[in-house]
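Dear Dr. H.,

I hope your travels went smoothly. While you were away I took the liberty of generating a structure for the chain from your last submission, since the lab meeting agenda had it listed for discussion. I wanted you to have the full record in hand beforehand rather than looking at slides cold. The sequence, exactly as received, is reproduced here:
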Amino acid sequence: LSGTLSVPYKTMGKGRCCKDDEAEYNKVRDHDKDFKGPIENRSCTDIVCCLLFVACVILLLLIATVAFIRGDYRRVIYPTDSNGQICGRDVQNRTRLVFFDLTVCARMGLAAVQLGCPTPQVCVASCPTRMWAWLPAHLAETGGDLNGPVKTTIAAEREKMVCLGGRNAMEPEYQSLSIRDLVQNHLCAPYTLPSVSMLGRCLPKLLKGVGGRVVSSMTTLPNNVTSANNRSIGADTVRRGTNTMARFIKVYSYLQALFEDVVQSWQWIVGGCLLAVAVSLLWVLLLRYLAKPIVILSIVLFVLLFAAATAFTVYKYIILRGQSDSLEKNTKLTFDFGYYLHLSRTWLFLAIVSGSLFIIVLFLLIWLRRRICIAIALISHTSHCLGHMMSCLVFPLLPFVLQFGVLVFFIITAIHISSLGDPVMRQIDNETFLADLNFTSLSTEEAKQKINDLLTHLIPCNPNSTNVAGSMCRFLKYGDDAFGPYMQLFNIFMFFWLFNFVDALCEMTLAGAFASYYFAFKKPDDIPATPLLSSFWRCIRYHMGSIAFGSLIISIVQLIRVMLEYLDHKLKDTQNPVGQFFLKCLKCCFWCLEKCLKFLNRNAYILIAIYGRNFCSAARDSFFLILRNIVRVAVVDKVADFVLFISKLVIVCTIGVLFFFTFDGTIGNRLAFIDSLTPKDLNYNLVPLLLIMVFTYFCACLFLSVYNMGVDTMFLCFLEDLERNDGSAEKPYFMPESLMGILGKKNDPLLVKQDEKDVAEAAV
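The corresponding predicted structure, in token form, is as follows:
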């Protein structure tokens, strides 16, 4: 055990031992003469976590199977009528839902989302296309005056009605009742309006501005449009009801316009995506030459920025020193910041601050100059590595496909779990219930309390049984399954675990491939034939448990963050500032904890890929290795992050500017063949441009994530190389000559001559 962990032990009592604390923190790893990169002779690690992961995946599949068998995604996607029947499934050839009286929804406000809109709802084959009101039809039926602009027969009036079951009033069961009885007994709708279908719901065209488009120019309703109790209905009332039901689907028209733009310009979008891939790949390969100029130029500009700020503030102080004597004597406290800009003391303070920062930055750069050079050399070395292992650049496509599959599986399972509940059917009194139905003036908590009270007093019913006189059995919403929340919570947790598992598998595989390159003494001759595939096989064969362990820790923290967000959402209306303060502190702490754990896990995966240790040992060793080189770690990490940020900015801006002037017509005005191919009459010219830029950013992140993992792996290998070796013939350095030159180190001359001799013999 002592030889494996390279940590000395001391005996205590009868066979008991403990670690030497000082050695634990300060002992560096000994040289291993047989070490030539990631070891092949290794064993399985963290088997318990691997078994736990497999068991949880099996349980997730069982839950998904139950959800697929018992649930029905059409309950969530398709509309449901008042009898709990799904339009298009339970009611064949009727895929649209019509609301009898949208003013009920208007009075409920947002409560309609939780309680459902209790006005009768029926499935119909198509949405109404004309306006109809019951009062003129009733007057015509009883021999009174027909107030409508066109007189029609009674049969024609009845055919315009929308009644329960999606039929009209000419059905035999309705012919014995007058139009007034049909409406007042809530068997038929009191009015219909020209409507459009939005996600299967028929919404009146009075809804203006859906998705930025005016659906109809009609803004008023005739006076004869009334509800079942003969109350006049205005256009604003119907519009409020329509807005309530359309709150979550107002983007429909936007999406339709976006879809049209995508279809019209799909060739350009595909071409832009391919160009983004080519530019990203080219930029990664060029970083071996551009990394040093980018960093040096940025550092010079950074220093010049503070120098210019210092010079400008001193200049302003000298100019205002003799001009603001009167203001200096009568200094006052004010929120007008322009006043302070006229005071010389303000510019003196800014000059002192900027000058101090300039001196601090200058001394830091002088002190860290060697470490900055190390960071630049590691970045260039990573580019050389990618030049010899181009397969690493396309490897992230496999994890991307796997993570996309995990996301799709999670969404489908979540939808089916959400549809496990049975329909909530309640006996609703048509007069008492609707008369007291007003939530618009209530706060969120008061509305929730009123909803709970209503659901408590409403009697469950069966739509197929006989209803109490004056009331109807109506569908309100789908209830929650007893185990549904727990199944959904486990589904969310497994989504995090599987997503992080795939991410960790990608990181460990790339770390093993990069380590194979670094520890190849004669590059590229000693590089394995297939370093990426070999590393991937080692991860799958030996370290599934360690990958599951590290991703489990991150997933638990992410699940806690989701629960904190849920609590914050639930408690945001409560008047408890102390509780909200502690909740926000917890959210901040767990955010920081997640970032730290991801950093530690990343370095642990690198050491696992190299030495084949279990997760805890690798995490401990990587932590102490970083702790012994904390300044180097900080400098290399920040320099690498800066280079990658500049790279993403250059790639995205290059593609964005090119296609902006293409769709703008600027390039087409100079090149006729480009103008002939450019799509015309787009609803939004920025749609294809934004899609191309989003894909470009994703593509740049995908390629540069490989680059970032390469820099981190090379850096840890570099630290291991420094601690294990001294450049002698017995313990030579594996680092490139550029790094040895920066550190003032070199390998034994006899070893170098032997290498040159071997190269010459190989050439012969």
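Two observations you may find useful: The two ends are 47 Å apart (CA to CA). Residues 25 and 328 are 58 Å apart (CA to CA).

With kind regards,
E. W.
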